[in-house]
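Hey, resending since the last one bounced:
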Amino acid sequence: MIDLHYWPTPNGKKVTILLEELGMPYNIVPCNIGKGDQFEPEFLKISPNNRMPALVDHAPADGGPTISVFESGAIMMYLAEKAGRFYPQDIRRRYEVNQWVMWQMANQGPKLGECGHFLRLGDKQATSRMQSAASPTRPTGSTVSSTIGSTTAVISLATNIPSPT
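The structure tokens again:
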């Protein structure tokens, strides 16, 4: 069984979406970041950077001891590999998927998250900060736009669904 230490944030939701797509049974362990649960000693044993989500797999594929994984991208790669779905075994295809997962984790997720945060603040100072935060999102969008033709190929690589191109 998998225990997912979770709070309903975009990073937490990414993992639950994948778990549902994989049809893997899991148990939600609430990690209320508003109350500081992520700083509790027991949580820090599985996520030393005090961030959720974090996963504890009590039945790893190799039959060995429990495995803990933190960071949503690493968790998603672990789950996809364990399930044998959405993660290619061929090294070239695997690293093509890896680079897009890392790109999302380092660029699209944080940059657009910052914009959303400042937009919700809704004051003049926030508008200035939002414009500053939005500046790096332009290349993020153009990265996707310039590779949109190969994006279906990346999805195809990860899912083993034939690309329409």
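The chain is about 60% helix and 10% strand.

Sorry for the duplicate.
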